[in-house]
Design brief:
- The structure is a homodimer.
- Helix content of chain A is about 50%, strand content about 15%.
- In chain A, the strands form two sheets. Chain A has an eight-stranded mixed sheet, with helices on both faces. Chain A has a four-stranded antiparallel sheet with strand order 10-11-9-12.
- In chain A, α4 runs parallel beside α5 and α7 (about 170-195) crosses α11.
- Chain A is built from 14 helices and twelve strands.
- The two termini of chain A are about 30 Å apart.
- In chain A, α4 links the parallel β4 and β5.
């Protein structure tokens, strides 16, 4: 395995993988030699390379973990250096531009990833092999993605204790804009607004637990965030516009004294907030479902992103190609009867003939 | 003491006061007889009155703890019912309209208050006599406020374990709009935006700890919040406009690719956030400072709000009126040399002749 960029995420992946398998060779590279040396010192790496090219030379799995705005250029640069059979993935917080560059460089062997863990602390010092335990790891397959790339990255995520979910890259970017990037900007804007003007000293008395919560993420690393916002520009601008309109709508309701309308709106947001985090995990026994699939691009992405849309965690996945060619069998393992039932129905509606049980 | 409105705040004040002094008579009233009965059952009240008027009849301290949008009308209604010597205060989250009505009804015997505690849970069931321990209790004196009103409410707050700070009502409202009311709206707007549109089911995977933090307060009670927003309409509208402009500024920077500008802005917000909550409390030994003051309205408000502006907690305060009339001596106790020094200097600049030591 090659890990390019040995900060919090890259370092934690390497550390987690090596904690589980002490003998696993993990070659690392970082623009900052001290960061790579520290990763080596912590046992996250088995060796440090002198260049990106040297790091990937013998790898069968390449993890791009540099700042997200540097990933597209790294893909282009490494197109020929990565061994022909190796799988390439990344951990960037924005995906459309990265996936485009990754597929241009590596074709079906590239699949984007986004582990949902850690952003306030950073650097190899904060790395933790258990960072991904019980976290979600979003995988962003497309019509181009090979099943072996999807499986390999899913296996990496699972081995680190993460739950995987598949979402297509453009949807991913719109979702993270709304769930992470715009809230980040809003938190900073609220701090900026709060401390502007006089009476700054009296703020402490009036800034309660709510303000603390809302603005906690404003203490995040600005360099990291510029890279993220830069890489998800389009979706972030859309999100900011949407938020601006929502706030204008509230201002209009207050100006008009439309208190009942305001109450309903607050109540809906309240219910949505409570529901969002009260949503039960589809846990349970592993259930296998399988289906015949045409051997054409896009099937894997369609099936896995449908599972993602339903919030169903695919625990394992494989494709058995038919010897007759033209079609194969896709087998999925999901946790629990409920999840298996929901996913089977949805896939039926998409035209797949879903069966229970493993295909062996 | 009379407590009008026996919900979370009124109930907690009554409970705290009675925990400290089992024999203190606390008469309560609530629009909801069940809430008043529950407060009596919990020992927060010594008796329940049948009307607002009956509740205040024998009181020397009246605490208005009904929903904030009902306080102005209660003041008007109780103008004659409250005994001539009684002090009146309230606990509303917005102050300008309340203080105006309170002073119209009770003159110098009214002083507004705003204990900064609890808003997600509500009702007498959640009441807790220790709710205010180590919390800030904002007092909003004006040029009209008598020193006995200020002292009495300060003593109530201190007896419940709160730290007091004085802020004038209009500044208070602008500050809470920025620190609490607009953040509340922003949190609800972010939830609303996040759950609108497709892929709602995939949200759970992508909604990280940051989103949880930012939107936690969106789960608050909508009725309470409508009352608050209604009572602080002007300052909230100004705050929403300011926030909207900040967000537009960020969108412009992103559109223009002004990454360095964006980085600086995020960095400033980061520093401000860290500084805000890292600010050390001015703790230490009680230090007395005193000064001759003209016996005219407004002096008390000027001195206490200056202390509030500086973040200095006034532990105790008294005014000794000169027998010659026309002036008196104001004595303040603050915690620690640092706070005493800063406050003395500031008051010197305002033209007061500040001396160290108690006047006795």
């Amino acid at each position: 395995m090659a890990v390019l960029g040995t900060g919090l995420i890259g370092g934690s992946i390497a550390l987690g993988a090596r904690t589980r398998n002490r003998r696993l060779p993990v070659v690392g590279f970082d623009d900052d030699p001290a960061a790579a040396a520290a990763a080596l010192g912590r046992g996250a790496l088995s060796s440090v390379a002198d260049s990106l090219e040297e790091a990937v030379a013998g790898a069968d799995l390449v993890v791009l973990a540099m700042p997200v705005d540097q990933i597209p250029a790294a893909c282009t640069r490494l197109a020929r250096a990565v061994p022909a059979e190796a799988i390439v993935t990344d951990v960037g917080s924005a995906k459309a531009a990265v996936v485009e560059a990754g597929e241009a460089a590596f074709g079906p062997r590239f699949v984007g990833g986004h582990p949902m863990a850690g952003s306030e602390r950073h650097g190899i010092e904060a790395a933790d092999g258990r960072l991904f335990e019980d976290a979600w790891w979003v995988i962003t397959p497309t019509a181009t993605t090979s099943s072996s790339a999807y499986q390999r990255v899913g296996a990496l995520a699972s081995s680190l204790g993460a739950k995987t979910v598949a979402v297509d890259p453009v949807t991913h970017d719109a979702l993270v804009a709304r769930l992470s990037h715009v809230p980040q900007i809003a938190a900073s804007a609220l701090v900026d607004m709060a401390v502007t003007g006089g009476d700054r000293e009296a703020l402490l008395g009036l800034a309660g637990a709510g303000f603390r919560d809302v603005t906690r993420i404003a203490a995040s690393n600005p360099d990291l965030w510029v890279a993220i916002l830069r890489s998800n520009r389009t979706a972030v601008l859309e999100g900011l516009q949407t938020l601006g309109k929502r706030l204008e709508g509230v201002a209009d309701a207050i100006s008009a004294g439309a208190w009942e309308e305001l109450r309903s709106w607050l109540d809906e947001a309240r219910s949505a907030r409570l529901e969002l985090f009260a949503k039960p995990d589809h846990g349970g026994e592993p259930i296998a479902i399988s289906m015949l699939v045409p051997d054409r691009p896009g099937v894997l992405a369609e099936v896995t992103t449908e599972a993602g849309r339903l919030g169903t965690n695919i625990e394992d996945l494989r494709i058995v190609h038919s010897t007759e060619g033209g079609r194969g069998r896709l087998e999925l393992i999901v946790a629990g009867e409920a999840a298996a039932g929901i996913l089977s129905e949805a896939l039926d509606r998409l035209g797949y003939r879903v069966e229970r049980g493993e295909f062996d």
